[in-house]
Amino acid sequence: MSDHDEAILAASARRPIVPLEKGKFYTYGTAGFRMKADLLEGISFRVGLLASLRSRKLNGQAIGVMVTASHNPAVDNGVKIVDPLGEMLEQDWERYATALVNATSDQHLVEVYNLLAAELKIDLTASAKVVYGRDTRPSGHKLVAALADGLTATKTEFVDFKILTTPQLHYLVRATNSEGTPLAYGKVSEVGYYEKLAEAFVRAIRGRKITGTLQVDCANGVGGPKLSEFLKHIPKDKVSFDVKVVNDDVLRPEVLNLDSGADFVKTKQRAPPNPKPQPGVRSCSLDGDADRLIYYWVDPETGFVMLDGDRISSLAASFIGDLVESAGLKDDLRIGVVQTAYANGASTNYITQHLKLPVICTPTGVKHLHHVAQGFDIGVYFEANGHGTVLFSPDAINAFKNKEPQSPAQKDALDTLAALADLINQTVGDAISDMLLVEVILAHKSWTLRDWALTYADLPNRLVRVEVSDKDRFKTTDAERRLLSPDGAQDEIDQAVKKYKDARSFARASGTENACRVYAEAATRTEANELADRVARIIERYGTL
Ligand code: G16
C-alpha cells in the first residue's frame, strides 16, 4: 500500500460511485465519461486519481481535465482527460480510467490504483500536475470539487482555470507544458489564448476586408461570453469584424443547447428559431462547449443552406493547398484529409477528385481523426458535425518560417501559412478558431457563403437519433460503416439501401448519448428521408428485441 492509500480511502468514502445494474459498466466513450450529472461525482473523483497517475508517468507534465457535456442537454455532464500536448487521452489509458471508475468499493479502488502504479512502473512519490476547467453547467461546481479531492488525496499540484471552453482548456494544457521552451505554445492564461488568436487573425487577414455582419449563435453555452471576450482583443484599426453574438444566455441553465447550437442546426437542418432567421445573414452556430462549428444562411430564393464540417474541411484543404503551391512547397509537404462515415459522399468525391487529395476514414471521435491527421505534414480533419481542425507538422511550420521566398507572391503565401498555423488550434477542434479561419478564407477569396456552397452539391442526407433499450448491443466494423451485431441487422440495412439511388446508410451506438444514430444519404431528399426512416425502424426493432 502506498502512502496515498489512507487519503484515497477517506476521500472516496465522501465521493461514492453510483453502482450500475448487474453486468453494466461505466465506459470511457467518444469524449470521456458522459451521462446524467448526478452519476458523475464519484467518477470525477476517480478521474483525478487517473490524471495524477498519468502525470507521474509522464515525468510530471501537466494533464488536463475538462468537465463538460458539450452538445448534450443541461442535465448531463461529462469528464474527459487531456494529454500533455493538448490532445485527447492516449487510448491505451482509457481502459485504466475505466478500471478505476468501475472499482466496486473504496478498498477495491485503492487496490486498482496501486496495481496500475505497479504495472505501469509509476513512482507515486514523483511530482504530478493537473489543470482543469468546466463549462457553464451548474453541476460542474461539485464535479470539479470531487476532482480536486482526488488530486489532493494523491498529492497532485493543480490549477483550477474555472469556466472555459473545451478548446481553451486544451490550449492551456499545451501552453503549460511548453512554457519557457522553444516550442512555447502561448501564454498560460485565458487572456494569452485571446491574444494569440487575435494577433494571428490580424496577420492572416493581411488587410483584406470582411464583408457584412456575422451572426454567431452560441447555444447559450460557454462560447457566448468567451467569444465576446475574445472580440475585445481584435484591434479595430487593423480588422473590421462585425459580429453579432446571439443565444449567449448562460444564466438560465435550462436553455443550454435548447433549440440552438451546432448540433441542432446539423441534425434539424434548419436555423435556430431564435432570433428569427433573417434571409441573407451570414450565420454560424457553436455548440455548448464551443468545439463545433456550422455555418449557414437562409437564402431568399432557395431557403436554408448549411455549410457543415465537411464544407469547412474542403474549404480549408483547398485554400491551404493553393497556398502551399504558391509558396513553392507542393513537393515537400504531404496534405491529407481525414473524415468519418458521416462525411457527405459528395465532399469525399470533391476532395479526392477535384482537390486531388487523399482522404482517410476513421471511426467517430476527434481522438481517432486527430491521430490519423498527424500522419500528414498538413492534416485537415473535420467531422460532418463541425468538430475538427488542421494540424501542421514541425517540418511544415519550419518551412513556412524559414523558406527563402523567391517572389513577393511566394512571401505572401508563406506569411499567410505561418499565420494560419498560429490561428488554428493545433490541440483540438475549436469553434472560435475555426470560425476565424473560415472568415480569413472567405475574405481572401472575396467569397460569400453562396460562393462557398457552389463548390459542390451535397447529396441529400439525414441523421436520426434512435432510442433503444441497450445501445451496447450494436457493434460496428469498417470505420463504423457496418454493423457486426445484432445478427441480421446489417443484412436488413443492406436490403433497404438497395432500394434507393446513390444511397448509403449506416447505424452505430453513440458514445456520448444513450441512443443509436442512423445516417442516410441518397440521390433525392425524399429518398434520403425515406431510407433514414426505414433504417431507424430496423434499429428500433433490433434495439428492443
Ligand atoms: C463528441 C466528440 C466528437 C463526436 C461527438 C458525437 O463531441 O468529441 O468527436 O463526433 O461527440 O459522438 P457520438 O456520435 O459518439 O455521440 P462533443 O462536441 O459532444 O464533445
From TrEMBL:
The active site is at 70 (phosphoserine intermediate). It catalyses: N-acetyl-alpha-D-glucosamine 1-phosphate = N-acetyl-D-glucosamine 6-phosphate. Residues 57-103, 110-179 form the Alpha-D-phosphohexomutase alpha/beta/alpha domain. Pathway: Nucleotide-sugar biosynthesis; UDP-N-acetyl-alpha-D-glucosamine biosynthesis; N-acetyl-alpha-D-glucosamine 1-phosphate from alpha-D-glucosamine 6-phosphate (route I): step 2/2. It comes from the Eukaryota. GO terms for biological process: carbohydrate metabolic process; cell wall organization; UDP-N-acetylglucosamine biosynthetic process. PROSITE patterns: PGM_PMM. InterPro entries: A-D-PHexomutase_a/b/a-I, A-D-PHexomutase_a/b/a-I/II/III, A-D-PHexomutase_C, A-D-PHexomutase_C_sf, A-D-PHexomutase_CS, AMG1_II, AMG1_III, PAGM. It holds the Pfam family PGM_PMM_IV. The keyword Translocase does not apply. The keyword Isomerase applies. SUPFAM superfamilies: Phosphoglucomutase, C-terminal domain, Phosphoglucomutase, first 3 domains. Binds 1 Mg(2+) ion per subunit. Its cofactor is Mg(2+). One of its GO terms (molecular function) is magnesium ion binding. Keywords: Carbohydrate metabolism, Cell wall biogenesis/degradation, Isomerase, Magnesium, Metal-binding, Phosphoprotein. Residues 208-293, 308-447 form the Phosphoacetylglucosamine mutase AMG1 domain. Substrate binds at residues 383-385, 508-512, 517. Catalyzes the conversion of GlcNAc-6-P into GlcNAc-1-P during the synthesis of uridine diphosphate/UDP-GlcNAc, which is a biosynthetic precursor of chitin and also supplies the amino sugars for N-linked oligosaccharides of glycoproteins. This is Phosphoacetylglucosamine mutase. It comes from Dichotomopilus funicola.
